[in-house]
Amino acid sequence: MIKAQIPEIKALLSTPKNIIIVPHKNPDGDAMGSTLGLYHYLNMYNHNVVVITPNDYPDFLKWLPGDDTVLKFETQQKESKALIDKADLLFTLDFNAFHRAGDMEETLEVSKAIKLMIDHHQQPDDYAKYTYSDVSMSSTCEMVFNFIEMLGDTDKIDATIATCLYVGIMTDTGSFRFPATTSRTHFVIGNLIEKGANNSEIHNNIFDTNSFSRLQLLGRALQNLKVIPELRTAYITLSQVELDEFNFKKGDTEGFVNYALSLKDIIFAAIFIESQQDGIIKISLRSKGAFSVNEFSRAHFNGGGHTNAAGGRSETDMQTTIDKFISILPTYKQELSQ
Ligand code: 5GP
Ligand code: MN
Predict the structure, then answer these.
(1) Same-domain check for residues 224 and 99
(2) Ligand 1 neighbourhood includes 66 CB (under 6 angstroms)
(3) Residue identifier of the C-alpha nearest atom 14 of ligand 1
(4) 28 alpha carbon to ligand 1 midpoint, in Å?
(5) Disulfide check for 168: which of 31, 38, 98, 141 has CB 3.0–4.6 Å away?
């Protein structure tokens, strides 16, 4: 994709369609911002549009305009399947492989709808008729802006759409500081503010709505922080017992790994979070510079993502997982000591 296919997509969208928009499992700010931004845009035409998430997402995203219309596959499976079954078009946003949609994987696989992918993760699968994939992009939200622009509709972006897209660009760029933030990103953000996104209010809604127990959990995470200075690596662990102690809610650990990365001279950071429910240790990896956590995660922890931010999982217990992590690190000594 995609420029050459825009006339085709425009033709498709010129008559009313049943449209489903899906983000990845455990949706984050970019996943929800991009799906709801696109939802509000497509709703301006006479389409029947529904956002279906694989599962629930954090409370700090629940103020987003359109949140009340979102279906959750996990708890609304029958309704979701019926809608996907009669969908003409199916957009997959902020992911590029069906397994990233968790329990929705099979439903997406068997769907006969025309698929459109908008995503910025590495190594996209080849399931979509229209693939807009660009790993250099800051966020899927920036790409949805580009998509609307390619359709010649920037003047249709109102305060509602602008608010949704602002959220994902802000969260995926760590508030405009990660390397994927370009002058174009700032141009888009400026444009969204002009169209009515209230930047100060959005930052407040996302970042300044902490619960007391989340901050206490952060305190514990920071106490658990371990540093391996010779490999410029730092990592955090949180066990299920600790999560329970601080009344853990979905999203509470979002951003914790960045504290490990904020240490002077550290270029590789990890957080290991036990999930009794899933029977796994969920891993978030972050790096600075050329060290690819996407490749590290793909090679050792069954995951992936971007060069500087990736996720993964381990099916063994916490201690075994940490032992494995520590034993692998020296094989990256050269990359990590640069
Ligand atoms: P997080 O650590 O915040 O869960 O994820 C960091 C980045 O990696 C996000 O862009 C996320 O979508 C991606 N990611 C997280 N887990 C996985 C995974 O298991 N596989 C792949 N391919 N990407 C992941
Ligand atoms: Mn994203």
Answers:
(1) no
(2) no
(3) 311
(4) 10
(5) 141
